[in-house]
Amino acid sequence: MSTASSGLLSRSFAALVAQRAVLVALLLAAWWLASLRMPQFVLPGPAKVGTAFIALLHSGTFFEDLGITLYRVLAGFVLAAIVGAPLGIVLGSSPRAARFFEPLLSIVNTVSSAIWAVFAIIWFGISNATTIFVVFMTAMPLILTNVWQGALTVDRQHVELARSFRMTSAQIMRKIFLPTILPHFFAGARLAFGFGWRVSLVAETIGSSNGIGYRLRQAADLVQTDQVFAWTVTLVVLMLALEAGVLKPLERRLFRWKKTA
């Protein structure tokens, strides 16, 4: 990379950081002004929420709750990917299987995460499995559908040509299907992870004795609005960090071949 290109990238990055900083400052200012006109138990100001966040850090359970929620989300998401991706490939490769199972997928998509949470409590009780199941049932159809649509875009002539060269099914999958499906899988996975993170809080509020969702419900029951906001800000920052620090770099690395194609 040339010096001019490096300088341009540095300036673009600096401009992006400045824009984000201005946006955050404007949001904080609007929040502070709104809090001046409302009772603290309705809308606490940024300073009060910051104090509540510091108190949470010193509570002794903050990182434990954060870790257990992250574990449940990741476990449900990984299971959804392991089940949803192969099923999506099967449905995309077999029109007969797609016609047979499409009504079932529509039913699964119709059931809300709150209903899955109720079923999970009945089946698994107050346990990690409750939240993991809800995340799985929310994320799996999203991944399956995106992979299915990606499999439909695979050029069948390329598949037939590969078979004529006596390529094995594994080789066809690796060299033809995966490059086509991977962008669709990644798009569905990002969407599924975001939804899974949110529904995990729903499950934890009604079917857990720890985790962020449980702490949110606990704070809301005690009208500790500053702690509710502190947990909410923590979630937002964590999701933005995962998006900017893990998902986007991974996406750029996986699909850098597109820029050179």
TrEMBL record:
Chief site of localization: membrane
Bilayer topology term: Multi-pass membrane protein
Domain ABC transmembrane type-1: 66-246
Subcellular location: Cell membrane
Membrane-spanning ranges: 12-34, 69-92, 104-126, 132-155, 176-197, 228-247
Pfam families on file: BPD_transp_1 (PF00528)
Keywords attached to this entry: Cell membrane, Membrane, Transmembrane, Transmembrane helix, Transport
Protein family (similarity comment): Belongs to the binding-protein-dependent transport system permease family.
Cross-referenced PANTHER family: ABC TRANSPORTER PERMEASE PROTEIN MJ0413-RELATED, ALKANE SULFONATE ABC TRANSPORTER-RELATED, MEMBRANE SUBUNIT
Designated name of the protein: ABC transporter permease
Biological source species: Paraburkholderia kirstenboschensis
Lineage of the organism: Bacteria, Pseudomonadati, Pseudomonadota, Betaproteobacteria, Burkholderiales
